[in-house]
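Supplementary Methods, section 5.1.

A reviewer requested that the exact input to the structure prediction be made available. We therefore reproduce it here, unchanged from the version used in the analyses.
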Amino acid sequence: MAHLVVLLPDPRVRARFADALSGVHSVTLAPTWTELRRAAAREDVHGCAVDADSPSREQAFLEIRDLRRRLPDVALVVYADVRESDPELVHLGRLGVDGVVLARRPPWASAIRRAIEDGLAAAGARAVGRSLRGRYPDPGVDAVVWAVEHAAEGPSVARLAAALGHTPRSLAALLRASGLPTPTRVLLWGRLLQAGALLARDACTVEETALRLGYATASSFGRAMKSETGCTPGEVAQRGGMACVRARLFRSRARRSTGAVRPRTATPPTGLHP
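The structure derived from this sequence is encoded token-by-token as follows.
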């Protein structure tokens, strides 16, 4: 299970988060932003959930910006008493928030779990992207990042291409020029990278991992992992999870890339899921 640090001063909100995440993730409570920063800097922390109005909205936004700068690979989810049409949601997206739980939108438990899972997926995708930039041209890296972040949704090639502003054909050409495989295989790699996180970080079984990533059976998932990485799911879990999968998928391919490496650009912003 992921280790989360939570700063939610309202005891009712804190209790709802604790109830929603109980048995799914490990939660550490932080009474202040200073304590949260200290706890979140630990290597075993994967995400934070914070109140966007504590001690005030202005101060919370400053703290959120600082937290994102300090810890780019930690998932950041906020609880916010705003409407879906409020401009503050756009502002939170610009601050680098990975997910939002809206105070005015039930059901609580499912919304909390969804925001946390989306945040963890986005954080994992960012980490993959950072490890690949400089080894592959950025447009190709953006495709991999998107595939990792959306792996649990079972996305299509058409959706991946549209998200990057391409047709499926032009995306295939871009990936080929970047030294990366076909769009279909990039989507497969996204699923396997997320599988690595589920197996190691969340200690999911092979069956649970297969189900969460849309595989018909655990054996079909196991075959895909073995074929692409040379490791069984059990070996992936023992050897570092997502980091193991990433190393296996990309270890030799960067050397075969013939595309020129472009200067680094910012990763396109991801959507927020209240």
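The chain has two domains: 3-123, 133-256. These observations are discussed further in the main text.
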